[in-house]
Amino acid sequence: MGSGDDIRYEKLRVTVDKSHIIAIGERLYAESIELIRELVNNAFDADATSVRATVNDARIQVDDNGSGMDLDGLRQYFNIGSDAKVTESRSPKFSRQRIGQFGIGKFASLAAARTFEVFTQRGDFAASVVFDKQEWQTDRDAWELPLTILPADPGKGDGTSVALTNLFRSFEPAEIERILKDGVPLRDAHFAVFLNGHRVMPRVYSGRRLPIMEGCAFGPITGEVFILSESASNGRIEGIEVKVRQVTVRRETFGLEEWGRDGARVTGELYADFLPVTSDRSGFAVDSPEYAAFREVVVGLLDDVRRSIGKMGEKRERIRSSRALNEAIRRLQLALSRNPQFSPFGVVAPPRPKHEKAGTEDETGGPATAPVEADSDTAKTRKRRAKHPKVKSITPGAVVKKSRIGDSLVSFCLDHFGEAGAEAFTDGGVIYINVDHPLFVRESLKPPTFVMHVARLLSQEIALMKCPRNPRQAFERQSVLLRDAFVETEG
User: Fold this and answer.
1) What domains are defined for the chain?
2) Which three-class secondary structure string do you get for 121-159?
3) How far is CA 39 from CA 46, 61, 163, 275, in A?
4) Each residue of 146-159: pLDDT tens digit?
5) With CB atoms counted within 10 Å of each terminal CB, which end of the chain scores lower, N or C?
């Protein structure tokens, strides 16, 4: 080894090939169409209230009315990897949470166009910068871009305009609109985006909205989850948009694919700015403690959503069953009026026409069968004093109807008695129907025959009430009642 006098210290210059800068930009923005999203978000960060994007086969131009840039701002704009939006995370006018992070979007834009031109004005300063990809890469040592200082136009106002020309590919407006809806804060009250003259609106969901405001150790989780109506669902698992700084990073399903058809009814947007994203912004660092805490909260929320869907389904079934029971009672009342000898309730007057019906409320909130009016004072007194037969041990999802038929007050109940339970039975003057019976479950899915199925079970019990010791005669009478219940009156 030589002596200390032989040791020399020098500096080694680190160089970066310009083509690598462009390549990095292209990797950060996997689809070159995302450059339009980046330009719109830059306008949002600059406190713009209006952004107008014009796209055709020859040119892409994005104009905003934001704060514009002075000379230092332009230098900062072309500073690769600047941390300005991290150190100054809020915009000065609207205090917006700034979206941009890497400052390399303009290099990614050169994956779709040869020329990138910026015009900006702020106060009495106006300038344009032309970024030509071919010329910039030709001189490997020069890192300057041509800057032109222009006279300011007071009538134009502050703002920035970016134009991309000499395009390498074409862009479909519908695809651009999809990207903007995913990655631009369109719900901000002071921010409007227009594409080829048409305002881009945020997605609107048809269904039940569940606002979300939760938190974990790393920060708040906000947004909204929607339970779509069955008609609005397309049957595909769309998942939930997870946004960081108001930009959708990716859609997550959180196990919705295991819900069957119900999973396709759940969508929405969740905001969690604390989540660490991958360098290309296409996903999250899923092995991070932040993501683990976030996922735990969301899975818990979706458990509540699934229970809500179950309750909505049960309510829908109760409403459908309630309507079928109403109609079955009305038709049987008509049949008993035509066959008074079969009635265990005395003489039954025919029901009023549907449009004249003024029934009472039942225990499910639907209209009950219209009672037959009594004419004498004695009948009115008896009507006030009489009580409906008491329905015993009903479950929370039961459907109960109470009505006067002939001289009697009658109660009807659709309730859960298990798959092995009887289809129907009578107890204490109450007619029960088992909604768990396999035949009821099957027929409830067939609207044309559902009412007839309920009427069959009711007429069976009514006939047995009249002829408890002669089942054959009872079933013969049931056949007549069903016939007359579903044969419409002539004229």
Assistant:
1) 18-199 (3.30.565.10), 207-287 (no CATH), 318-486 (no CATH)
2) EECCEEEEEEEEHHHHHHCCCCCCCCEEEECCCCCCCCE
3) 11, 10, 10, 23
4) 899 999 998 899 99
5) C
